[in-house]
Design a protein that fits this description.
heterodimer, A: Four Helix Bundle (Hemerythrin (Met), subunit A), 2 domains, about 0% strand, extended, B: mainly alpha, Helix Hairpins
């Protein structure tokens, strides 16, 4: 086994271990920190695959953006020191069974299939290449999805502001009173 | 580098996806369910990157899909957290069992 192989197995054990802890720990703040470590592990996996650009994007967007957003919303909504109630035993048993069955099924399916690479050219990724193809209008260019994504981001941003805005008018308060 | 077969990376992403499914099934807190969804989206990203690198090394489509998935995940997390905060204002709880007005 070469060092690269050993590093891959270490990274995957790290990702899976922290991922399991993120979904099973009962303190919500710890769950978010374990999620942070799992996402850092995935960025390390991209580094291992020599995709430095994608690893940087992963760290900036997930670790720097989404996890910080999640931690802020934890502080805004619940007491982070408290333990969450235990999941119902029968529910966790059956979901564990479903998950084990699903994992076994997919793993068997993957191991039965032989993947044959179409071409054997070496994979080298340059940021230059990504930028050129992303803003290309000719064949295999990704300009239209790029623009669509930018509109989607704008819509999501405005939607977030509108949803989370504190409404002071009477209608909202009467609605809330009728709920309670 | 080439000693690790593609199937082992796919095993990793499968396990990560089903860990996310387990979290989605057992957790009743909306923020932790959101975290499980992030794990699942990340496992899909690993799949895209691995297929691109191992099977189609001369193309870049997997990388583009990964970038788009990361973008949409960011937008989705922002909208979900806005909804969660709004729900907390009206119900003082973010447990999914407590939000039952639209159930029937």
């Amino acid at each position: 086994m070469s060092p690269a192989t050993i590093i891959f197995y270490i990274i995957s054990a790290f990702i899976l271990g922290t991922g399991v802890l993120a979904v099973t720990t009962r303190k919500i703040f710890r769950a978010s920190i374990w999620l942070l470590f799992s996402l850092i592990g995935i960025a390390a996996l991209y580094f291992w695959m020599q995709l430095e650009f994608l690893a940087a994007v992963q760290i900036i967007v997930y670790v720097g953006g989404i996890v910080v957003l999640i931690i802020f919303s934890i502080f805004l909504t619940i007491k982070s020191g408290e333990e969450m109630p235990k999941p119902i035993l029968i529910r966790s048993i059956f979901s564990a069974l479903a998950v084990l069955f699903g994992t076994g099924f997919v793993v068997r399916l993957i191991s039965l299939y032989t993947f044959k690479p179409i071409s054997t050219t070496a994979f080298n990724l340059s940021v230059n290449q990504i930028g050129t193809q992303m803003l290309d209008t000719k064949d295999f260019g990704y300009l239209l999805p790029f623009e669509l994504i930018s509109i989607l981001l704008l819509a999501a941003m405005i939607g977030c502001i509108v949803i989370a805005l504190k409404s002071n008018d009477k209608e909202a308060t009467t609605f809330q009173n009728s709920i309670q | 580098m080439s000693e690790v077969p593609l199937t082992h990376i796919l095993f990793l992403s499968t396990c990560l996806f089903f860990i996310g499914i387990y979290g989605l099934f057992t957790r009743r807190n909306m923020i932790t369910m959101l975290m499980s969804i992030e794990l699942m989206l990340n496992s899909v990203n690993i799949n895209f990157v691995a297929f691109n690198k191992y099977l189609y090394p001369e193309k870049l489509d997997g990388i583009f899909f990964t970038i788009f998935v990361i973008t949409i995940a960011a937008a989705e997390a922002a909208v979900a957290i806005a909804i969660i905060i709004n729900l907390y204002r009206s119900h003082h709880s973010i447990d999914v069992e407590d939000a039952t007005e639209m159930k029937y």
